[in-house]
Design a protein that fits this description.
Layout (H helix, E strand, L loop, with lengths): L15 H24 L4 H8 L3 H13 L3 E3 L16 E3 L4 E8 L3 E7 L5 E8 L5 H17 L5 E9 L2 E3 L4 E5 L4 E5 L1 H8 L3 E5 H12 L7 E7 L3 E7 L2 E2 L30 H5 L1 H10 L8 H9 L3 H25 L3 E6 H5 L1 H11 L7 E3 L7 H16 L10
Parallel strand pairs: 3-6, 6-10, 11-14, 14-15
Antiparallel strand pairs: 1-2, 3-4, 4-5, 7-8, 8-9, 11-12, 12-13
Helix pairs in contact: 1-3, 2-3, 4-5, 6-13, 9-10, 10-12
Length: about 400
Amino acid sequence: MPRTAAPPPALSASPVPRVADRDRRRTNASVVLRSVLEHGPVARSTIARLTGLSPASVTDHCARLAGAGLLREATAPRRSGGVGRPHLPVDVDTEHLLVAGVHIAVPYTTLALLDLRGRVVLRRELKHEGTEPHRVLRRAADGLAALCAAVPGRRPLGVGVAVGGWVDRETGTVVEHELLGWREVPVREPLGARTGLPVQVDSHARALVNGERLFGRARGAGSVLHLFVGNVVDAAFASHDEVLHGPRSAAGAIAHLPVPGGGEQCGCGRTGCLQAELSERTLCRRARAAGVAGWANPMHVVAAAAGGDAVARRLLVERARATGRAAALLLDVLNPEAVVVTEVGVLHFDDCLAALREAVGTERAAQVHPTSFPADSVLAVAGGSVALDALFRDPLGAWPEVI
């Protein structure tokens, strides 16, 4: 009697759909939270219409986000023409949760606490007592503890750290910062160990391009370039909600782009590199050589210009014009919809902004804007935006141990 073939073994269910479902839930939670950030207070039915998600899915995500403390219901319901049940709009909860921001500059570290709309609640500057990495990070951790103690009842979710130079976002490492003398400095682990909080680390240019996309005038732009001009000069480019990082997050390094006609000696041995020409150290040295009173830091030059010092004003306008030439080059290469510039003269004086736009060219001048954030808060926002970008990208998974 012929043998009957045994039935094939049952196939186990592929894990791919479960992974896809998990990724979809994470993406949809982000879409809902960012919709509330942009439009809140907003009814759930409006969120469904704006996002294309089903009303049931929106209701579920709002419940999860509210349970994590990220959303709250508005106190006063909205009625729809006086007919039917009143809408209960939801909004981002800015009363209970915070993120901590750390921006490490060459002369000082800025510490801040921000609410979930990116608004600075408290801010403090710590002048460096030397730039040895462990000392800088230890003082930052102690300073954050003091800030958090000043707002009892409000819980920090995590820490965002923004630094100039080459920063590896994935490992939380400052690969190279020439002016600080840092090379391969781990930041995430030591700061996390001292604060007891999860830590995200990124370059300040990428931090601010994310801040602009979340909270600033670049919200909704399909592509945006951020140009940061301080002691460090670097850039970041975002397209379709993704920031370009490159291998080991090395994208955006423009410090050694050549400036036509530039004569400043650079540490690399060449002359006319962009950072050597535009750095705040160069501005202050030129101010000193020109006899500007109180030239020790760029804000002294700004104060002199505001007080009527024509030489200080000329130096700031010239720097803004050179920044415009750099922006024009990057516009040619990347062709973004919007360019956002963080530069001290542009932040304070209309004629500096006009010089910047003139150098970019009249056809593209309208694409160029100063940073959306106040001059005294922009570095605080940079640090906080590193943490807030992680939160809004993955609201329930960015820091599962604290939410």
